[in-house]
């Protein structure tokens, strides 16, 4: 699944060489295969605490939407 073309593998083509991938370090996102894939593909990952929505505006948007529904 991780080997298909996606934003992860095509990020530098779309955003230039200085792009950084953001994930929340939750257990499901931090498995060995995922870490190996990111390292093998020279993908820089923004580190921040697991399940921390603060630096992630998308998570804040989901919270806002949930309160409106």
From TrEMBL:
Transmembrane segments: none annotated. GO terms for molecular function: nucleic acid binding. It comes from the Eukaryota. Gene3D superfamilies: Ribonuclease H-like superfamily/Ribonuclease H. Residues 17-68 form the Tc1-like transposase DDE domain. This is Tc1-like transposase DDE domain-containing protein. The lineage of its organism: Eukaryota, Metazoa, Chordata, Craniata, Vertebrata.
